[in-house]
Design a protein that fits this description.
Layout lengths: L8 E12 L2 E13 L2 E6 L11 E11 L1 E7 L14 H14 L4 H17 L2 E7 L4 H14 L2 E5 L1 E2 L13 H15 L6 E3 L2 E2 L7 H14 L3 E5 L3 H10 L6 H6 L16 E5 L5 H10 L2 E4 L1 H6 L7 H7 L3 E3 L11 H19 L8 H13 L16 E4 L12 H10 L7 E6 L2 E5 L1
Parallel strand pairs: 1-4, 5-6, 6-7, 7-9, 8-10, 11-12, 12-13, 13-14
Antiparallel strand pairs: 1-2, 2-3, 4-15, 15-16, 16-17
The chain binds guanine and fe (iii) ion.
Fe (iii) ion (FE) binds next to strand 5.
C-alpha cells in the first residue's frame, strides 16, 4: 500500500451512491475527493481548495462506492458452481466438508487461497467478511493473502467440534479453543486491513462447551462474531432437537453472548448472522434488540433450496442488513449479481408468500450492497464525507445501447449484466488504487 502520499486525489466521472435505502445521489461528470484515505464528498464543481490534488480522469465511466460482501467462504471458492443438486445438510457432508478437509495441507491452501484472493481483488468487493476453515495455519495464509490484496476484511478461523467427519471435526472444545487462542496470538494486530472475527460454524457443529470457550475468548479480545442462522428447514429442526432449552435458534448463540450482546460485560458484540430465512418473530425481535446484522444471501438460498428471507420485514424493522455472496452455496462472488437476486427473490416472496411485503427496489438493494452492509465496518460504502474512500470505476460502454440512459438506469443495467465480473477499470480501497485494467 502507498500510505498517505498517494491517498489524496480526485476521481472524475459519472458518480452514483446511496444516501439512504430510498435515495441515491447522482452527479454526472462529478468529482469525488479523497484526502488521506477518507472521502471528502462529491462535487459538481471542484472546490478551489482541492485543485492541486492529482486528478484521475474516468470521464464517461461509472464511479460507485466499493461493494460489501458480508458472507463468503474462501475455501469453497474452489468448487463454486458445482454440486448444486443438494440441500444444505447433504451439501455440507458430501461437497463442502471433503473440500474443506484439504486445507490441513498448507501447500493446497496456499494455491487455492491465492486464486480466491486474486479473484476478490479483481471483483467490485472492497470489504468482505470471510470464513476460512477450522485450520489455523491455513487461515493465517489466507489473512496474509487478503492483506496483500488490499481489500478490507474480517477473516475467521472456523470452530466446529461436532457433526463433521474426522479430522475436519476438531477433537474437542478445548482443542478448538486452544487453536483459536493461538491463531489470535499470531494475527491480532498483525495487519492494517485484515482483522480476525470469531466464527462458530453453526449450532449443529458447536458443542455448548465450545460456545462457552468462545464466549471467554470474545470477552478477552472484544472480537466480532459471524455465523449462520435459520437457513434451512432441516437445519432448524436439527437445532431444535439439539437445543431443546433454547427458545429459538438464535437463543442458542445468545445464551453464550454470541448474538450481539455480551451479557456478562453488557458490551455490544458486533455480530453477523447469514441467511435468517426461517427466523421466528421472537428471533427477529432479539436480532433487533441486540443489533445483529443480517447477511442476505439470495443466490445460496435458491441454490440450496433453502427458501427466501423476508428482507422487507428486516428493513422495515430497522434491522441492519447487507448482502452476502455465500460462495459456494452461492455460485459467484459478484455482488452485482447478489443485488439483482435480492430484488428478484423479493418479488417471488411478495407474489407467492406475503402480499404485504412489497418487493425490494433496485435502489434499496444497491443500498444493502454498499452503505447497508458497509456499516458493519464503520463508515464504509458511501462517498459522504468521512467515509472510508473505497471506489469502483466501471466501463459500462461494454454494454452498448442506442439511446440515452440516466445514471440510475446505467447502474441498474450494469448490475443486471454482472459488469463487475468483466468491466472494472479501477478499484480503490481506503485511498489506495489496488487494481487497474
Ligand atoms: N451452515 C454451516 N456451514 C455452512 C456453509 O458452509 N454454508 C452455508 N450456506 N451454510 C452453512
Ligand atoms: Fe455460509
Amino acid at each position: 500500500m502507498n500510505g498517505n502520499k498517494q491517498s489524496s486525489f480526485i476521481l472524475k466521472g459519472d458518480v452514483i451512491y446511496s444516501i439512504s435505502a430510498n435515495e441515491m445521489r447522482t452527479v454526472p461528470s462529478g468529482y469525488v475527493v479523497c484526502v488521506k484515505g477518507k472521502s471528502r464528498g462529491v462535487f459538481e464543481k471542484l472546490p478551489q481548495k482541492y485543485e492541486r490534488l492529482p486528478l484521475h480522469d474516468h470521464s464517461g465511466k461509472l464511479i460507485i462506492p466499493g461493494l460489501v460482501d458480508l458472507h463468503i467462504h474462501a475455501p469453497q471458492y474452489a468448487f463454486r458452481g458445482t454440486g448444486m443438486d443438494l440441500e444444505l445438510m447433504e451439501w455440507l457432508q458430501q461437497q463442502t466438508f471433503p473440500e474443506e478437509s484439504k486445507y490441513a495441507d498448507l501447500e493446497y491452501a496456499r494455491k487455492a487461497y491465492q486464486i480466491f484472493a486474486d479473484s476478490m481483488k479483481k471483483s467490485a468487493t472492497t470489504h468482505a467478511c470471510i470464513f476460512a476453515t477450522r485450520h489455523s495455519q491455513a487461515t493465517e495464509v489466507l489473512m496474509d493473502l487478503m492483506e496483500q490484496s488490499g481489500i478490507v476484511s474480517y477473516v475467521g478461523k472456523v470452530n466446529m467440534d461436532r457433526e463433521a467427519p474426522d479430522p475436519l471435526r476438531e477433537s474437542s472444545a478445548d482443542a478448538s479453543a486452544a487453536d483459536t487462542r493461538q491463531w489470535l496470538a499470531h494475527v491480532n494486530g498483525k495487519y492494517k486491513r485484515t482483522m480476525p472475527i470469531l466464527t462458530p460454524r453453526f449450532i449443529p457443529c458447536c458443542t455448548p462447551e465450545l460456545l462457552e470457550q468462545l464466549h471467554e475468548i470474545q470477552t478477552i479480545y472484544d472480537l466480532p462474531v459471524q455465523s449462520h442462522l435459520s437457513e434451512n428447514p432441516n437445519e432448524v429442526d436439527f437445532v431444535r432437537q439439539l437445543c431443546p432449552k433454547s427458545a429459538f435458534y438464535g437463543d442458542a448463540y445468545d445464551a453464550f453472548g454470541l448474538f450481539g450482546v455480551n451479557h456478562q460485560s453488557g458490551k455490544p458484540v458486533k455480530t453477523i448472522m447469514a441467511h435468517c430465512v426461517y427466523s421466528t418473530e421472537e428471533e427477529i425481535r432479539r436480532m433487533k434488540d441486540n443489533r445483529v446484522f443480517v447477511a442476505h444471501c439470495p443466490a445460496s438460498n435458491a441454490n440450496l433450496a433453502s427458501g427466501i428471507a423476508p428482507i422487507r420485514k428486516y428493513l422495515s424493522l430497522g434491522i441492519p442488513t447487507g448482502l452476502g455472496s455465500d460462495v459456494a452455496g452461492g455460485h459467484t462472488e459478484s455482488i452485482f449479481r447478489a443485488i439483482c437476486d435480492a430484488v428478484q427473490v423479493s418479488k417471488l416472496y411478495w407474489r407467492l408468500i406475503d402480499q404485504n411485503q412489497s418487493p425490494l427496489t433496485f435502489c434499496e438493494a444497491f443500498f444493502l450492497a454498499t452503505k447497508g452492509g458497509g456499516s458493519f465496518f464503520g463508515r464504509a460504502g458511501s462517498f459522504e464525507p468521512d467515509y472510508d474512500f473505497s471506489a469502483v470505476v466501471l466501463d459500462d460502454s461494454l454494454i452498448p445501447h442506442p439511446m440515452k440512459l440516466s445514471l440510475p438506469q446505467r447502474l441498474e443495467r450494469a448490475a443486471y449484466g454482472s459488469l463487475d465480473l468483466y468491466g472494472i477499470c479501477a478499484k480503490y480501497v481506503s485511498g489506495d488504487l489496488i487494481y487497474e485494467k
